[in-house]
Amino acid sequence: MAGVEAVIHDSAMTWDLQQDCVDCAAYALRELNLTDQNKIAEFIKSEMDSKYGLLWYCVCGHSFGSLVGHEGGDCIYFSIDDIFFLLWRMDKAYESREVDVKELLAAQQRKREAVKVHY
After folding, report:
1. Is residue 115 part of a domain?
2. Domain annotation covers residue 17
3. How far is residue 22 CA from its own chain's centroid?
4. Cα–Cα distance between 84 and 79 in angstroms, integer?
5. Domain harbouring 77, CATH code
6. pLDDT at 54
7. Which helix (H) or strand (E) holds 61?
8. Which of 1, 38, 50, 70 could bond to 88 as cystine, CB 3.0-4.6 Å?
9. Contact 61, 37 (CB under 8 A)
């Protein structure tokens, strides 16, 4: 988007995809005048899902830490003004993965019990 200065801090994307991510964020900020960070992230995720397929995720804000797994070339970290954006697409292998919630909770409980430290 013309007139918007974005700083790309890290990227594993093609230039065109980077540009689309920045344009999408700039549009949310400048044209839609969104200020709520959750609404900004929701808009960007929705746009990326509709343009490039599902499993996109977005975090935006002034300060956050992160560690994400992503599809090969689908991750970018950039800023516009004082707002930072992290966009990534989850590995497609997880798209149809079914999880038994009761088994997952039981496994988490077993793990917690296994690491209890007694003083």
Report:
1. no
2. yes
3. 13
4. 4
5. 3.30.740.10
6. 82
7. strand 56-61
8. 70
9. yes
